[in-house]
Hints:
It is built from eight helices and 13 strands. The protein has 334 residues and is of the alpha+beta class.
Amino acid sequence: MQPSTSNRNITGTVRRVASWLVVVGVGVGGWFAYRSEPVQRALGNREQFRVEPPEERPEYAGAVVESIGEFAYAAGESTIASASVTTVDRATQRATVTRTNTLTGVTIDGQSVPITVALPGVAAPAGTVVPAAASSRIVTFDAIFRKGATDADPWIRSPRAPYVGGTELDPYLVPTIDDVIGFELASIPGRDPRAVGGATGEIRRPTAEDALGPEAGQPLMSLPEHDLANVPEDVVDLRRWTTDDGTFALVSPIGYAIAGLSLPDDTRLVFTYGFDEDGLLRYLDVEIDPAVVMASLDHMDESMLSFEWRVTSVSDLGVTIDLPTNVVDEVPAA
Length: 334
């Protein structure tokens, strides 16, 4: 029995529609494949976003790196600046690290309390956070020397596994522009925070609106002013982005690791990079959403307010780091 003419027409129409859908599907799929990031990069259509590595990586024999993390404390609504200064000599593979903690502000029961030098035998006001004592250590390829409690006490020497990666001896201690800015970060609009037309090139500090948008509210706690006045003079390229913690970690993992952040991925923040004429990263600043800081203090003793990192010196001559002579070996715990 032969199919009717109407059935043959229906079958033909279905086949044509199916063929058309296949063609359209292949075309649409091909279009999206063509527009995909891997294909566009392979075709060279993302070159405007590429940060080319320098022909020769900038080298240095010695450097001095400073970092300051500012923290808010729930006790007495105090703030403490935790500072670290690292001096590294790459020829001898030695580094010195000095840490200090400075009480930068105390508010008790809504009243500002003057910051004075603690006197022996005098108790600190109730609710005041007392900064930890300063510390110094020298890191070598296979040992760490820790300074004693006083200048008269010997240094304590401890063995360490002979490695340099992820330590003060890391050759990438001072990264370059291509270490911290790649395709993704270069494609996110950034801006130079220096005031346009300013006689001295002053830098406008980030505001709550930068991090939170135009609907930003005022934080419940009076947070300290955060200034970008300590940018090294050698910085010639300064760029700032407003993003969230998760994006910062994704698009610039080396810079994120330097800051040592530990925040929810959706935390809004403002981060700034500064590079010298050789492309070395000389400045990094991160300011955190103040609303997140306040929320953290509801269930934590401390919360980071901001982080500043700067390379104050890069030298071709190296830095002389002498090992202490008054040394005792650490006694292993029983």
